[in-house]
Amino acid sequence: MTIFTWLSPFIGRFHPLLVHLPIGFLMIAYIMELVGRYSKGKVHLKKAVPFVLGLGALCAVFAAGSGYLLSQSGEYSADSVFWHQWMGIGTAVLSILTYLVRRGKYFFQVFTLTQIAVIVAGHLGGQLTHGPDYLTENLPSFLKKEAELVAVSMDEAEMFPDVILPILKKNCESCHNEAKKKGELVLTSYAELLKGGENGDITLENNAKGSDMIKRIYLPEAHEDAMPPEGKKRLSREEIELLEFWIDTGLKNDFKVVEMALDDRMQGIIEDRLDTQEVAVNPVFDKNIGNASKADIEALTAVGFTVIPLAEDSPFLQVSYFNRLDSLTKEKTDLLDKVASQTVWFDVSGVKVNDWTFLSSLTNLVRIHLKSTSIDDESLNLIAAENLEHLNLFETSITNAAIQKIESLQLLQTLYIGNTNIVSSDISDLMRDNQTLTIDIGRVTVAEDGL
Amino acid sequence: MNKFQDAYFKQVEFETRRHFLKQCTTGLGAIAMGSLVGCGTNTARGLDKLASMANPLMPKPPMFAPKSKRVIYLHMAGAPSQLELFDYKPELQKLDGQDCPPSLLEGKRFAFIEGTPKMLGPLYDFKQHGESRAWVSDRLPHFSKVVDDVSFLKAMHTDQFNHAPAQLLFHTGSPRLGRPSMGSWVTYGLGSENENLPGFVVLVSGGKTPSAGKSVWGSGFLPSVYQGVQCRSEGDPVMYLSDPKNLKRDEKEKIIKGINKLNEEHYKEVGDPETLTRISQYEMAFRMQMSVPEAMDISKEPEYIHEMYGTEPGKASFANNCLLARRLAERGSRFIQLFDWGWDGHGAGKEEALDHGFKDKCKDVDQAMSALLTDLKQRGMLEETRVVWGGEFGRTPMRENRGGKEMVYKGRDHLLESFTMWMAGGGVKPGITYGETDEIGYYGTKDRTHVHDLQATMLHLLGLDHEKLTYDFQGRPFRLTDVSGNVIEKILA
Question: N or C: which end of chain B has fewer CB within 10 A?
Answer without folding.
Answer: N
